[in-house]
């Protein structure tokens, strides 16, 4: 039993022409054999094209609504013959339309002929065909991601050979971002354009720094005296040396923000640098240092566990 054209497009029988066109475009892109590798994708693509070919033309649609699946044998009669007919009732393609192996494209409006039918022709080996795109990973350190610049990537080629590619890495590139090298993919066929090479950025984990979006987090070790009295501490951050002002009375876990010192963003606001206080004590105390700690303990009225005892 032939499938109902309205059901194929997922529209009601009362659907307006623009609704039918929108449904067709959505389904044609989904089931196009160039992008959908499911075994039945090509067959579904044919069904979608046939359904749209029928329902997009008012006269053919009227004939289909009247006679159902047998509408083709009434071409030139019935609904199409009223008013003199169109001269296209034989079932051949109408002006402005193409039907190749059941794959249909509307050559009017803003439907892209190459987008919808170019892949179909390529599958049949007709005419020029572009080369396929290639994918690879580009591994960067955090410092390289911050600074950007020219990088050379060595990739394996078919046949076991390797090739070097020069890549311009934009400053502030993020993990997962793709960099396109136009024309560096597989070669085209019969004069078709070559494909592209897409490099997916992978920022390597750093033992000192944690990247969250464009913000950079790291632990800042401080001595008990620096935490209690406050201090100005110079450290080598990923983007270069910075001086961090530690307020007096800082405990472990306190976060200090350095605005705009994170991953740069050429198109917007850069990330921030966050230093998280970690109060450290010496593992062993010399005689003099121990004596001073004992004196401090004797005079201190600080009780951090108040309410827990």
Account of the 3D structure:
It is a single chain. This protein is an alpha+beta fold. The chain has 3 domains: about 80 residues, DnaJ domain (Helix Hairpins), CATH 1.10.287.110; about 70 residues, Sandwich (HSP40/DNAj peptide-binding domain); about 90 residues, Sandwich (HSP40/DNAj peptide-binding domain). The chain contains 8 helices and 13 strands. The chain has a 4-stranded mixed β-sheet with strand order 8-9-13-12. A 3-stranded mixed β-sheet has the order 3-7-6. Strands 1-2 form a two-stranded antiparallel sheet. Strand 1 and strand 2 form a beta hairpin. Helix 2 packs antiparallel against helix 3. It is elongated. The N and C termini lie far apart (about 80 Å). About 10% of the residues have low confidence.
Descriptors for this entry?
309 residues; alpha+beta; Helix Hairpins; HSP40/DNAj peptide-binding domain; 8 helices; 13 strands
Query: Going by CATH, what is the homologous superfamily of the largest domain?
Result: Urease metallochaperone UreE, N-terminal domain
Might you state the CATH topology name of the largest domain?
HSP40/DNAj peptide-binding domain
Query: What is the strand content?
Result: 25-35%
CATH C-level class of the largest domain: Mainly Beta
Cα-atom radius of gyration: 34 Å
The run of helices and strands is HHHHEEHEHEEEEEEHEEEEH
Helix content: 25-40%
- How far from one another are the termini? 82 Å
Overall SS class:
alpha+beta
* Poorly predicted spans: 77-109
Total helices: the number is 8
**Tally of structural domains:** 3
3D shape = elongated
Strand order of the largest sheet: 8-9-13-12
């Amino acid at each position: 039993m032939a499938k109902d054209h309205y059901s194929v497009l997922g529209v009601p029988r009362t659907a307006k022409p623009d609704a039918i066109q929108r449904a067709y475009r959505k389904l044609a892109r989904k089931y196009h054999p160039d992008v959908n590798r499911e075994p039945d994708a090509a067959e579904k693509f044919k069904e979608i094209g046939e359904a749209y070919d029928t329902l997009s033309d008012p006269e053919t649609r009227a004939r289909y609504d009247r006679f159902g699946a047998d509408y083709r044998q009434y071409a030139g009669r019935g609904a199409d013959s009223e008013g003199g007919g169109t001269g296209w009732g034989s079932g051949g393609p109408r002006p402005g339309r193409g039907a190749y192996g059941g794959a249909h494209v509307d050559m009017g409006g803003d439907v892209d002929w190459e987008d919808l039918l170019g892949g179909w022709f390529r599958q049949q080996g007709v005419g020029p065909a572009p080369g396929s795109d290639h994918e690879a990973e580009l591994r960067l350190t955090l410092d390289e991601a911050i600074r950007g610049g020219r990088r050379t990537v060595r990739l394996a080629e078919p046949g076991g050979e390797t090739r070097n590619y020069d890549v311009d890495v934009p400053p502030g590139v993020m993990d997962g971002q793709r960099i396109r090298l136009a024309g560096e993919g597989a070669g085209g066929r019969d004069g078709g354009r070559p494909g592209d090479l897409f490099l997916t950025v992978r920022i390597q984990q750093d033992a000192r720094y944690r990247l969250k979006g464009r913000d950079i987090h790291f632990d800042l070790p401080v001595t008990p005296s620096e935490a209690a009295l406050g201090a100005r501490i110079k450290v080598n951050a990923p983007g270069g040396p910075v001086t961090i002002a530690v307020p007096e009375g800082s405990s472990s876990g306190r976060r200090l923000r350095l605005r705009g010192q994170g991953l740069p963003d050429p198109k917007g606001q850069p990330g921030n640098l966050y230093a998280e206080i970690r109060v450290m004590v010496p593992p062993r105390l010399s005689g003099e240092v121990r004596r001073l700690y004992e004196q401090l303990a004797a005079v201190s009225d600080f009780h951090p566990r108040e309410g827990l005892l």
